[in-house]
Design goal:
Layout lengths: L1 E8 L17 H14 L6 E4 L3 H14 L3 E3 L17 H13 L11 H18 L4 E6 L1 H11 L5 H6 L4 E8 L2 E8 L3
Parallel strand pairs: 1-4, 2-3, 2-4
Antiparallel strand pairs: 1-5, 5-6
Protein name: Histidine phosphatase family protein
InterPro entries: His_Pase_superF_clade-1 (IPR013078), His_PPase_superfam (IPR029033), PGM_Phosphatase (IPR050275)
Pfam family, one: His_Phos_1
Length: 190
């Protein structure tokens, strides 16, 4: 029996004046969310989960409405805590920080999580979802790094290079059989 996990990376988000938890979608991100709905509305989604961050929730909220389903918020699917106070990492520091974090999975910025810590909590949440929804199709509203870390747990090719090639929004369908990843397909969000 195959279980399908639709990893939905959030749409374009606001970049200033808000914290990581409440940072919502930009106007372009709201259009991204409509495109995600159009892409997934006929996929036979059985359940919806999301990071508790607004940009992830809002990316799949229209899909939930169209499908007549609730979104289950899962704390451990949240974005990586980049630094103390869960502040947003400045764009100019992002690439160097990611390179350091991928070179050493235990490296963390002051007050932040390491890739190993983030991956462990997110994968545990994903495995619980897989157990609860065996043989079903589940969409997860998520974040780029968390998505890459979860996927990378199951297959090493989902690394920093993969992360840097993802887009906002993006959708990857992971197929699992008996808890093992058996395939990944990228859906084109038009």
């Amino acid at each position: 029996m195959t279980t399908y996990i639709y990893m939905v990376r959030h749409g374009d988000s606001l970049r200033t004046g808000v914290d990581e938890w409440t940072r919502g979608l930009s106007p372009a991100g709201e259009e991204d969310a409509r495109r995600v709905t159009a892409c997934l509305r006929h996929e036979g989604i059985d359940a919806l989960y999301s990071s508790p961050y607004l940009r992830a929730i809002h990316t799949i909220a229209d899909l939930a409405k169209v499908l007549g389903q609730e979104i289950t918020l899962e704390e451990d699917l949240r974005e990586k805590v980049w630094m103390e106070g869960n502040r947003q990492l400045p764009d100019e520091d992002l690439l160097a920080s990611l390179q350091a974090m991928y070179a050493d999975p235990d490296y963390a910025l002051p007050g932040g999580e390491s890739n190993r810590e983030c991956q462990a909590r997110a994968v545990e949440a994903l495995q619980e979802i897989l157990q609860a929804h065996e043989g079903e199709r589940v969409a997860i509203g998520t974040h780029g790094l968390v998505m890459a870390l979860m996927m990378g747990y199951f297959a090493p090719e989902y690394d920093l290079d993969f992360l840097l090639k993802t887009t906002k929004p993006d959708i990857y369908v992971m197929a699992f059989s008996e808890g093992q990843l058996t395939g990944v397909e990228r859906l084109i969000v038009k």
